[in-house]
Write a structure and sequence with these properties.
283 residues; mainly beta; eight-stranded antiparallel sheet; seven-stranded antiparallel sheet; 20 strands; globular
């Protein structure tokens, strides 16, 4: 892929980051990580699946930024439901401030239109790093900082804030592969989609066929955001910026979130997930 880079951990390729692409505007074009793999090479992301073509591996996507769709697909409108409004925004790669085999620091803009004259709502600094934890697990450290560069307030919303209960998605999001059986999802205190969706937990694990992902909020503010979880309909996990109420930012304000994801071979138990998260967040 021409505009992409390979992310390596302990000398092995564990991910590919596509930072420029020619995606259809209805998908809300944006950089993404895919494929991401375990150290043994098992893929743990999905790209543009038939059930949700706008799900693009692992990255950042928000369905409502000042009324613009940076998630892809239709926009949920109160009283009308999902509607194709043609209001899709674009995340544009601008520059790499740092680029090493095991990570990078990137600058992006979030614009309201695909043409070069589109208004810039946000400037983002994205930091991604891969770290080996042991022979069967590594950690993806993902931080994004979104700064309001307009002259007025910019707020973040979700279908939930626009009238669809339980659909508070938007922020860091990971689409996992769909397998013959739904993955097992659990936290330190609960398990199952109904118990963990919308909950606040230091970490949340998603275990599929031969792999486990453990997502952890790596700052107090990130841990305050509830988890968005789907396993029955499709396997996906996100950290929600606006699960119940809109998140408003004044001109010049910055929203910062950091999620560390443990990528492991095999099915982890709770104590194993806890131990790996502790190592990953402190490395």
């Amino acid at each position: 892929m021409k505009h992409s880079l390979v992310l390596r951990c302990a000398g092995r390729p564990v991910g590919r980051y596509a930072y420029r692409n020619d995606l259809d505007r209805r998908l809300s074009p944006r950089p993404y990580l895919h494929p991401v793999t375990t150290l043994a090479g098992t893929p743990v992301t999905e790209l543009a699946p038939a059930d949700h073509p706008h799900h693009l591996g692992a990255g950042v996507a928000v369905p409502d930024v000042a009324g613009h769709n940076f998630w892809g697909g239709r926009t949920f409108v109160r009283g009308r439901g999902p509607v194709d409004l043609g209001n899709h925004g674009v995340q544009r790669h601008r520059d790499f401030k740092l680029h090493d085999p095991d990570g990078f620091v990137e600058e992006l803009t979030w614009t309201v239109a695909e043409d070069a004259a589109g208004e810039v709502l946000l400037r983002e600094r994205r930091t991604v790093a891969a770290t080996e934890l042991d022979a069967t697990a590594w950690a993806l450290d993902f931080t994004f900082s979104l700064t309001n560069v307009t002259g007025g307030e910019v707020s973040f919303g979700s279908p939930a804030t626009n009238g669809r209960p339980g659909a508070g998605y938007g922020g860091f999001f990971w689409r996992a592969p769909k397998e013959s059986a739904p993955p097992h999802v659990f936290t330190a205190a609960a398990e199952g989609e109904a118990a963990v969706h919308g909950a606040r937990a230091d970490w949340l694990a998603l275990a599929g066929d031969g792999w486990t992902l453990v997502f952890a909020g790596a700052t107090a503010r990130t841990r305050h955001d509830p988890w968005f979880v789907r396993v029955a309909e499709y396997p996906g996990v996100g950290s929600s910026l606006a699960s119940e109420d809109r998140l408003a930012t004044a001109p010049g304000d910055t929203v910062v979130r950091r999620v560390v994801t443990v990528v492991a071979d095999g099915a982890l138990k709770r104590d194993e997930a806890t131990a790996l998260v502790r190592r990953a967040v402190t490395v």
